[in-house]
Specification:
Length: 92
């Protein structure tokens, strides 16, 4: 009876070792495509975000240019013309 038990233990140990090797190989096969898919997904999300931002910048109005144009027109001409007229009236 001892021989049969030892045979059974040896067979079981061999099967467990084979199963561990098979599981390890399977996990290695799973990790590579999973990492690749995660990186591809991140790249796609970043690409979509850049596209959305570019469309937003293209279609949004630029209010700063309008403000700067109005500001420059109001003060540049009037200020210098008044100074020149005042100097001419003073006789300088």
């Amino acid at each position: 009876m001892g021989t049969k038990m030892q045979e059974l233990k040896g067979l079981l140990a061999t099967n467990i070792g084979t199963m561990k090797e098979a599981m390890h190989e399977h996990q290695l096969k799973i990790k590579k495509p999973t990492l690749k898919m995660v990186l591809i997904t991140i790249a796609i999300v970043i690409g979509i975000a850049i596209l959305i931002y570019a469309l937003y910048r293209f279609f949004s109005p630029d209010y700063l240019d309008d403000f700067e144009d109005d500001f420059d027109d109001d003060f540049d001409d009037d200020f210098f013309d008044d100074d020149i007229d005042d100097l001419d009236d003073a006789g300088v």
